[in-house]
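Re-run with default settings, no changes from the original entry. Doing this only to confirm the output is reproducible before filing.
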Amino acid sequence: MGVVTVDIANSRTVKRRKVESPNLTQATVIALDPGETTGWSLLTVDPAALSNPAKVKILGSIYDHQHGQVDSYRGDDGEQQMVDDLYALCAVWPHAAVVIEDFVIRINDRSRSFLAPVRTTAALKQLLWADGRITFKQTPNDAKNTATDSRLKDWGMYEREGGLNHARDADRHAILFARRCAQSLKLRSEAFPHLFKKGAPYA
């Protein structure tokens, strides 16, 4: 399994594309590491790996793994354009769980760039909320402790080329969230109701 790197900002292949028949038999996570440059990761796994992790391993059940980065350095409206690109990605996958790295202040910084994660998260969450979608948050420390560089390399999910540090951090969040879902029926039911709520195929 290789990692597919997609530049949604340049190609805009996902821009406002509608999905007529989304695949409802798989569990897809879109994880975001927001900032002036936002990393994103898309991970699609067999739902059995979330409902029966003792028998079906998550890392051995990945159907699709893509990641990339979008930056806001595109003129006065660059930040909003970045949010639009991220929203378009989420719109292509209407049944994906959207996970966003939580922002916690650890230093005294008054620069505009310091609060870029807050502005990006707020704008994107508003767009998703209008669509009736919820988002999930995770701490950066939890993601880095779960998916260290060493583990990513062992799993074949580490790309040295391209300087995709933010995309790699998004990968960490995608893996962590999948693992959390495998440990919690409540969480996976909230994240993937089409798969795990009462009456669904994997309930």
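The chain has a mean pLDDT of 84. Residues 4-194 form a domain with the Nucleotidyltransferase; domain 5 fold (CATH 3.30.420.10).
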